[in-house]
Amino acid sequence: MILTNHIVLFEPLIPANTGNIARTAAATNSVLHLIRPLGFEVDDKHLRRAGLDYWASVNIVYHDSLEDFLATVPDQRYLYLITKFADETYSDRDLSATDVDHYFLFGKETTGLPEPFMRANPEKALRIPMTDKVRALNLSNCAALVVYEALRQQRFAGLETTHTYPHDKLK
User: Fold this and answer.
1) What domain range includes position 88?
2) pTM as predicted
């Protein structure tokens, strides 16, 4: 049985980031969770433009708070907090299980995840390595890195591995 990867955004602020992440969710059959408050309206033109035609293909779940979201995670062992403040890198964690749902929780663009929550759950924290020359990577890039690493470890279960060019279909 193949279950799902979940991309979870804690209080996202930038509509274009969320739109790009929605496109990644559509491309990877991932569920997108948005934890309120959001820094934009879901009908924002920048959000829709970034998601393009894929918005209708995304399974989006809204949560009123971090606590509400956490109550929906069936097995907390498969909840991962993505941060730059962790010892273990995301690619070192075994994400290969395809019989459980994996939840990747990303913080707000400006402040990340709440510090008390992070301090209470250090074993769940995974780091994306980077130099000290930048404060952080773009949120949509981080989501793509992590979900595709999980899919790589899962042997891209549930995804097409080959495509034909549109002109090939005309023959």
Assistant:
1) 5-170
2) 0.91
